[in-house]
Design goal:
With 520 residues, this protein is an alpha/beta fold. It has helices at 47-50, 55-74, 88-92, 96-107, 116-130, 168-175, 183-206, 217-229, 245-255, 260-263, 277-290, 303-315, 318-323, 327-338, 343-364, 368-380, 392-402, 410-421, 433-436, 440-458, 490-499, 501-507, and strands spanning 6-13, 18-26, 30-39, 82-86, 111-113, 138-143, 148-153, 158-164, 211-215, 242-244, 295-298, 467-474, 478-485, 510-518.
Length: 520
């Protein structure tokens, strides 16, 4: 069994940028990212046509790697647990061995140059770690500087791996000379993309794939800009957020005619991607059209996270067992550990929530997806105590919203956070900004789930986990909740009586508690 804590750093030497992710793995916590850093080196600048890495770019790259290694060491990562993979630009450069040797001599770091297909496979591992993949095949693509990887896969199996030399830096260098991009250049680039993607698009259409998952800085920048266009700058999470084809088309038409000075003013666009975003937008437009997609979902994990998952899995077999957990559940548990949670109490609250949800389902009418969110809210309801006992319900809401939970859509995170926020004290109110921003159906879910959580919280008031099971009887006017326990549940019934009012309002029935069998 995996008992010790291990730390690993993964460095991705891409055409546009160098990235490093540092993760910690241990029993219970699973795999937790503890640091992430990026530097836009643009080591592929000018090398697409010359096949030679620029001297200044190499120097900048080595300096950045030195900084990365210092940071990794400060975080407790040993030298043997630092891995570095190089992709398209370095892979194709005639002088790559000179660069690799200089890195080794000046930093001690040994860089592995990986193929396009290896890159695609690592991207799959990374995306699967961050986004809840369906049981049916979906398209995954990663827009890099030198290449773009396409994967068709479900949550268990890969059906297609492809790497195409159509990255944004390569296309910018090869096709675009005018600012804004001319109609002729745009048309040529569209035709080139369509020809390169024909076979993979055909396979995707044959499999009736309608959703794609996009990783990479280019995709994330596009998502942020669309979010800004739609007035959603206040949303925190980018991972597993989505934009539709209609939203993209509206944004694309307004931006593609802009020059670089106008693009610099766009909210969400990295300064060093002002020119690179043009071929990125054109490619995204072609992908939407050629693959006949309805929407694109963003993954903030890709190659480097996939490198970590694969490395841990191959180095330490126990990691395979940890990875078998749902990424959503594992992410919730990780956040609990990060906040030094009361695990036994939280698990008891979650278990009581699920029993109440199931027994009351004919009355509230919510579904299994809502049930899952209730469980996670139960597990995380008290994590705000990590900051302060006073107003800890509000702190719990804040931490959940900003905790970078993996595998959830932003709306799901908002529901979990709101349910946790209303487990005590004030009730859901349109005066509260986070609650008022929810859609009507989502507010109904929060109302029901928070009412259940409030009662469950009362039923473990003494943190002694005495309630073992729950039965209910209901009619048009009332609900009776019978409690089976290890000890007389007097304190639990007293506390639950104080917390039942909101659920009575939501269900439009009075609630009474009675003691059932005591197993003492």
């Amino acid at each position: 069994m995996l008992t010790e804590t291990r730390k690993v750093a993964a460095i991705d030497l891409g055409t546009n940028s160098f990235h490093m992710a540092i993760v910690e793995e241990s029993e219970g916590k699973g795999i937790v990212e503890i640091d992430r850093v990026k530097e836009m080196i643009c080591i592929g600048r000018g090398s697409i046509s010359t096949k030679m890495l620029d001297e200044k770019a190499m120097e900048a790259g080595i300096t950045t790697l030195k900084h990365f290694l210092v940071l990794a060491a400060q975080q407790g990562v040993t030298a043997e647990n630092v891995m570095a993979f190089a992709t398209s630009a370095i892979r194709e450069a005639k002088n790559r061995e000179i660069f690799l040797r200089r890195v080794r001599e000046e930093t001690g770091l040994k860089i592995k140059v990986i193929s396009g297909l290896e890159e695609a496979q690592f991207i799959y591992y990374g995306v699967r770690h961050a986004v809840k993949l369906a049981s049916d095949p979906e398209l995954i693509f990663d827009i890099g500087g030198g290449s773009v990887e396409f994967i068709i896969a479900d949550n268990q199996k890969i059906f297609l791996l492809e790497s195409r030399k159509i990255g944004v830096a390569r296309m910018l260098e090869r096709f675009i000379t005018s600012d804004p991009v001319s109609d002729r250049e745009l048309s040529l680039l569209e035709q080139f993309f369509a020809a390169e993607l024909f076979t993979s698009a055909e396979k995707s259409r044959d499999m009736n794939i309608k959703r794609a998952i996009a990783s990479s800085g280019t995709a994330q920048n596009i998502a942020r800009m669309i979010r800004s266009m739609n007035g959603r700058d206040d949303e925190v999470m980018l991972n597993q957020s989505s934009f539709t084809r209609k939203e993209f088309q509206k944004f694309y038409k307004s931006v593609i005619t802009m020059n670089s000075q106008e693009r610099k003013k766009l909210t969400g666009l990295d300064e060093k991607r002002v020119d690179l975003i043009v071929p990125g937008l054109i490619l995204m437009n072609v992908i939407f059209s050629l693959f006949k997609l309805r929407e694109v979902t963003i993954s903030d994990s890709a190659l480097r996270e996939g490198m970590v998952v694969h490395y841990l899995k191959s180095s330490w077999p126990d990691t395979e067992r940890l990875q078998q957990h749902s990424i959503r559940r594992q992410s919730v548990i990780e956040l609990g550990y990060r906040c030094d949670w009361d695990k036994k109490h939280s698990e008891q609250i979650a278990a009581l929530c699920l029993q109440l949800f199931d027994r009351l389902q004919p009355l509230h009418g919510l579904d299994i997806r809502d049930r899952e969110l209730l469980e996670y809210a139960g597990l995380l309801h008290n994590i705000g105590a990590f900051i302060s006992i006073s107003s800890h319900h509000k702190h719990s809401q804040y931490i959940i919203l900003h905790g970078e939970l993996r595998g959830f859509a932003p709306a799901e995170v908002s529901i979990i956070a709101n349910v946790a926020r209303y487990h005590r004290k004030s009730l859901p109110s349109l005066k509260h900004e986070a609650y008022s921003q929810l859609k009507p159906r989502q507010r109904r879910v929060v109302d029901v789930l928070s009412g259940i959580l409030r009662i469950a919280n009362g039923l473990d008031r003494g943190h002694r986990q005495t309630i073992t099971s729950i039965e209910t009887e209901s009619n048009d006017k009332s609900v009776t909740i019978r409690l089976h326990s290890l000890h007389k549940p007097d304190i639990e019934i007293w506390a639950a009586e104080r917390m039942k009012g909101w659920l009575e309002t939501v269900l439009e029935r009075s609630i009474r508690f009675e003691a059932g069998t005591v197993h003492a």
